[in-house]
Amino acid sequence: MTKSIKLPALAITQSEGRTLYQFAIDGKQLDRIASVSRIRRDEQSFVQGYQRTESLQHIASIRKYIESDAPMIPNGIVVAFDSRVKFIPTRAKSKGAYSQMGEIVIPLDALGLDGCLPGWIVDGQQRTAAIRDAAVEAFPIPVTAFITDSQAEQREQFILVNSA
């Protein structure tokens, strides 16, 4: 049986078939649930992935801030989860409400058939690396996530988030 983590979450439906999930997690745990899709070429020379390599200088700057006396990072991480991740409502959605309370259930250290974790970091790879490397015991970070098995949709969201 796969271990999982259950976190309080908010589901926000923005349009038909487009739901976002917001929750907080210890940033030190992100590498247990999500990977970075590095840009590369496959055996047929097709481009795969969408993230550039880490900027060590940028990561060091963020890490130094996280290790300071009173850090606050209000802009969270964006993660694309595959369908192994589930949202379980904990109460009925109020009439006219844009959001619904519940729990997001994420399998821990579970590799899928493709050998991958259930999530891909769409935005925030530098912040994630800085938290991972920071000399702090824990650092809670907000996450906005969506669930899709489509790499094209993940790539589309990466482009949209990073084009502004």
> How much of the polypeptide forms β-strand, as a percent range?
35-45%
**In order across it, which strands form the biggest sheet?**
3-9-6-10-2-1-8-7
Rg, please?
16 Å
**pLDDT averaged residue by residue:** 83
Structural class: alpha+beta
Morphology: globular
How many helices? The count is: 4
Written description of the protein model:
The termini are far apart. Helix 2 (56-66) crosses helix 3 (125-133). The longest helix has 12 residues, at 151-162. The chain has four helices and ten strands; from the N terminus they run ββαβββαββββαβα. It has an eight-stranded mixed beta sheet. It is α+β, with helices and mostly antiparallel strands and 164 residues long. It has helices spanning 30-33, 56-66, 125-133, 151-162, and strands at 4-15, 18-26, 34-35, 40-41, 47-48, 77-81, 86-89, 99-107, 119-123, 140-147. It is 22% helix and 35% strand. Strand 4 and strand 5 form a beta hairpin.
What's the quick description here?
This protein is α+β, with helices and mostly antiparallel strands and 164 residues long.
